[in-house]
Design a protein that fits this description.
The protein has one helix at about 460-470, and strands at about 5-15, 30-45, 50-65, 70-90, 95-110, 115-125, 135-150, 155-170, 175-190, 195-210, 215-235, 240-260, 265-270, 270-280, 290, 305, 310-320, 320-330, 340-345, 355-360, 365, 370-380, 385-390, 405-415, 420-440, 445-455, 485-500, 505-515, 525-540, 540-555, 555-575, 575-590, 595-610, 615-625, 630-645, 650-660, 665-680, 680-690, 695-704. It is mostly beta strands. The strands form 3 sheets. The chain has a 27-stranded antiparallel β-sheet, with helices on one face. Strands 13, 16, 18, 21, 22 and 24 form a 6-stranded antiparallel β-sheet that branches.
Length: about 700
C-alpha cells in the first residue's frame, strides 16, 4: 500500500517581557510566553483518503517572582494547556477528543550559601471534555518542602517531604490515590594525600493509599547506600603509577501491602540501575551505560533520550524475578504517536541480548504519576537485565521532542490471601578496579588492569558479601544459599606499547572476560588478542591496522572464534577537506553448528568547506556477509549533506540519503531552513520526502 503524510505545523512564540529589573540576588516581576501550534495530517491509500487528523495546541505560562528580604522570596505561576484532537476516518466518521489543564502554584524560598529551604503548593485541574465539566475532571494536589544544609567541612544533609493527591469527581471514584513520601539524604567526600573516601546514603519512606484498589495501601521502606574508597600514587619520578578503587552499593527494600480482597494485581520490581545507549545492533553484547535519571522517580527530569532517533536502547537492571511489563514514561504533556519496540533480556553483561518480542503500542496517561507512558507487555520472563529499543521514530508533540524520563518494571501476580503481606529484598553490588602502568624506558610502556564486579541479591550478610568479593579476585568459589543469587564479572588483561620507529607505534594486548554465578546457570568467558600498528607519516595522514582474535567459551567448551583485520585511515586531502575510511574483514566460526561466515565492510566519510558559506559532507558504506550455509546479505548506503549559510542568522541544509538492503531500496530527500530574525524569535521550516521498497511506503513531512 502507498501512504502519503502531509503535516503542517505553525508555531507562534510571543510575549516575553520583564517589567522590573532584579535586585542583586533575585529576579523580580512578571514574565511569560504563549505557544500556538496546529498540526494537520492526511493519510492516503491508492490516492484515496483513509484518515485525517487535526490537532490544535494552546499553551500559556505566566510567572511572577519577588523578594521579601535579601534571603526570602516567593514565586507565583500559572500554566494552561488547551488541546483539541479531531479524527476523520475513511467513512467520514468524526471522533473528537479534548484535553484541558490549568495549574496554579505558589513557592517560597529561603536561600543561603550554607543552607536553603523551600516549600510550595501546586494544584492541577484537568478535563477530558470540551467544556469544564466534573464528568471528565481530574485533580492533582501537590505539597512539598525541602531543607538542605551543605557545611564546608562536614557531611551534607537533605530532608524532603512530598505529598500528592490524585482524584476525580465520579461516584464512586475511579481515581483516588494519595502518595506521601519522606526522604533523607547525606553525602560526604574526604580527601587525604593519595586517599579518596566518599559516601552517599539515602533513606525513603513512601506511603501510597489506593482505597479503591485490591491493594488499598502500600508502605515502602528503602535504604540506598553508596560508598567509595580510592587510592592513587606515582613512583620513580612518574615512571610508574598505580590506582586502586573499591566501591559498594547496598540497597534494602521493604514493602508492606495491605490487601482488601483477592484478585490480580501488578507488582513493581526493584530497580538497581538505569541504563542507556544508542546502538543500531541491539542483538549483540553491547553494554549499556549507566543513566541514573531513568530510575529516580522524577517523571519530568531530562535524560537526553529522545524518540526522534531510532535504536534508543533504554534498559534497567532489576532483581531476578518474573517481569512482564516495562513502562517507559516521557516528558512532554501530549499524546504522542505509536512506537514499535523490541524487548530484550539477558543475565549478565557478556551475553548476547535475547529478543523476547516486538510490540507496537500507543501511549496512555498514568494517573498515579500524572504522566504519559508506553506500556510494553510481554510473556513473563526472569532475568537481571531488560531493555526496550524503538524501531521507528516519532515527530515532536506540540513542537516539543518526545523525551524519555523514566522506566519502571512490573509483573502481574494473583493474590489469594487478604490482610498484610511483607516483601523484603536486599541487593549488594561491589566493584574493584586495579590499574598499574610502568614505563621503564621512554619508548616502551606496560599496563596491567583488573576489574571485578559482584552483584548479590538477598546476600547472606553484608560482611559475607564483602569477604566474598575479595576472595573472587582469585577464585570462583561462592557460598551456596537458597536465597542468595550472586553474579560475578571479571575482566583482566595486559598491554604493551612500543615506539618501534618515529613513524610507527606497535601495541600488543590481551584481555580475558569471565562471567559466572553461584547457581551454575552462567559460566561464560572470552579471550581477546590484539596486535595493532599505528603510523602518522604526515601531519595530514594517520593510519591504524589491527589484527584481532577472539575466542568465546560456554561452560569451558569453545563456542565461537572470530578473526578480524581492521584498517582505519584519517587523512586531510586538502585544506578544509577531511576523509575517514574504515575497512574491515571478519571470519567467524561457530563450533556448535560448524557454520563459517565472512563479513567484508567499508565505510567512509568526506567533509569539506567548499566556500566560506558552503559546507558539504559525503558518507558511504558497504558490507557483505556470506555463510557456509549458503546465506548472504548485502547492505549499501550513501548520504550527502549540503549546508549553506548566507548570513550569520540563517542556515539552509539539504540532505539526500539512499540505502539498499538485499535489493530493498529506501531513499529520502530533505531540506531544513533555520532563521533567527530577532534575538528572541527563531523560525524554521523542515521538509522530508521518503520512499521505501520495504512496505512499500512513501511519505512527505512538512513542519514549521
Amino acid at each position: 500500500w502507498h501512504s502519503k503524510l502531509y503535516a503542517l505545523c505553525t508555531m507562534l512564540y510571543a510575549i516575553s517581557f520583564m517589567l522590573f529589573f532584579c535586585t542583586p540576588v533575585f529576579a523580580e516581576g512578571p514574565s511569560g510566553w504563549v505557544n500556538l501550534n496546529y498540526i494537520s495530517t492526511e493519510q492516503l491509500e491508492d490516492d484515496e483518503t483513509i484518515s485525517k487528523e487535526g490537532s490544535f495546541y494552546r499553551n500559556l505560562y505566566l510567572t511572577f517572582e519577588k523578594p521579601i528580604t535579601p534571603l526570602i522570596s516567593y514565586q507565583l505561576y500559572l500554566r494552561t494547556n488547551w488541546t483539541d484532537f479531531r479524527l476523520t476516518d475513511a467513512d467520514d466518521r468524526i471522533t473528537k477528543t479534548y484535553q484541558r489543564a490549568i495549574e496554579p502554584a505558589l513557592d517560597l524560598f529561603l536561600r543561603n550559601p550554607m543552607y536553603d529551604f523551600s516549600a510550595g503548593y501546586r494544584r492541577l485541574e484537568q478535563w477530558t471534555t470540551a467544556h469544564l465539566q466534573n464528568e471528565g475532571r481530574r485533580t492533582t494536589e501537590f505539597y512539598y518542602s525541602r531543607f538542605n544544609i551543605t557545611p564546608r567541612e562536614f557531611p551534607s544533609l537533605s530532608l524532603q517531604v512530598d505529598r500528592q493527591k490524585n482524584f476525580d469527581y465520579l461516584s464512586p471514584k475511579s481515581i483516588d490515590i494519595t502518595d506521601t513520601r519522606y526522604t533523607g539524604n547525606s553525602w560526604y567526600q574526604f580527601l587525604y594525600k593519595d586517599l579518596n573516601l566518599s559516601y552517599n546514603f539515602t533513606y525513603t519512606h513512601d506511603i501510597v493509599e489506593t482505597p479503591a484498589d485490591i491493594i488499598e495501601k502500600t508502605k515502602n521502606y528503602n535504604f540506598n547506600g553508596i560508598y567509595n574508597i580510592g587510592y592513587s600514587r606515582s613512583f620513580w619520578s612518574g615512571m610508574a603509577n598505580i590506582s586502586a578503587n573499591y566501591q559498594g552499593n547496598y540497597i534494602r527494600d521493604k514493602n508492606k501491602f495491605f490487601i482488601s480482597e483477592g484478585g490480580t494485581a501488578s507488582f513493581e520490581r526493584l530497580r538497581f540501575q538505569g541504563l542507556y545507549i544508542n546502538d543500531p545492533t541491539p542483538d549483540d553484547t553491547t553494554s549499556l551505560n549507566p543513566q541514573p535519571a531513568l530510575i529516580n522517580n522524577q517523571f519530568t527530569d531530562s535524560t537526553g533520550i529522545t524518540l526522534n532517533t531510532s535504536f534508543q536502547n533504554i534498559g534497567v537492571q532489576v532483581e531476578l524475578r518474573p517481569v512482564s511489563m516495562l513502562s517507559i514514561y516521557y516528558r512532554n504533556n501530549g499524546l504522542a504517536d505509536p512506537v514499535t519496540w523490541r524487548i530484550y533480556h539477558r543475565n549478565n553483561n557478556l551475553e548476547n541480548w535475547s529478543l523476547i518480542t516486538t510490540v507496537t503500542v500507543n501511549p496512555t496517561f498514568n494517573s498515579v504519576n500524572n504522566a504519559f507512558r508506553y506500556e510494553l507487555t510481554f510473556p513473563s520472563t526472569s532475568a537481571s537485565f531488560f531493555k526496550a529499543v524503538n524501531v521507528n521514530t516519532i515527530p515532536p508533540v506540540a513542537g516539543n521532542e518526545v523525551e524519555v524520563s523514566e522506566i519502571k518494571v512490573f509483573d502481574t501476580e494473583t493474590i489469594t490471601e487478604t490482610g498484610t503481606v511483607t516483601d523484603v529484598n536486599n541487593f549488594f553490588n561491589q566493584g574493584i578496579n586495579l590499574v598499574a602502568n610502568v614505563r621503564p624506558v621512554p619508548k616502551l610502556s606496560f599496563s596491567l588492569n583488573y576489574f571485578l564486579n559482584r552483584s548479590d541479591q538477598n546476600p547472606i550478610s553484608i560482611w559475607n558479601s564483602i569477604g566474598g568479593v575479595f576472595s573472587n579476585l582469585v577464585s570462583k568459589s561462592i557460598d551456596d544459599d537458597d536465597r542468595l543469587l550472586s553474579n560475578v564479572l571479571r575482566v583482566y588483561g595486559a598491554s604493551s606499547e612500543w615506539l618501534t620507529h618515529r613513524l610507527l607505534t606497535t601495541t600488543l594486548s590481551f584481555q580475558r572476560n569471565e562471567a559466572f554465578d553461584n547457581r551454575n546457570e552462567t559460566d561464560f568467558s572470552s579471550n581477546t588478542y590484539s596486535l595493532s600498528f599505528n603510523s602518522a607519516p604526515l601531519s595530514t595522514l594517520d593510519a591504524n591496522l589491527s589484527l584481532i582474535k577472539n575466542d568465546t567459551y560456554d561452560f569451558g567448551e569453545k563456542d565461537t572464534t572470530n578473526n578480524s583485520v581492521l584498517l582505519s585511515i584519517v587523512s586531510k586531502l586538502y585544506r578544509d577537506v577531511n576523509m575517514v575510511t574504515d575497512v574491515g574483514y571478519t571470519h567467524s566460526k561457530s563450533h556448535e553448528t560448524d557454520i563459517n561466515s565472512d563479513t567484508t565492510s567499508i565505510r567512509g566519510s568526506i567533509d569539506a568547506y567548499l566556500t566560506q558559506k558552503l559546507y558539504g559532507s559525503l558518507i558511504y558504506g558497504f558490507s557483505r556477509t556470506s555463510s557456509s550455509d549458503n546465506t548472504s546479505a548485502d547492505t549499501t548506503e550513501g548520504q550527502t549533506i549540503i549546508t549553506y549559510r548566507p548570513g550569520r542568522f540563517i542556515n539552509i541544509t539539504g540532505t539526500l540519503r539512499a540505502m539498499d538492503v538485499d535489493g530493498d531500496l529506501t531513499t529520502s530527500e530533505g531540506i531544513l531552513i533555520d532563521w533567527l530574525p530577532l534575538p528572541a524569535l527563531r523560525l524554521n521550516l523542515n521538509y522530508l520526502h521518503t520512499n521505501s521498497d520495504i512496505e512499500p511506503t512513501m511519505s512527505d513531512l512538512i513542519s514549521t
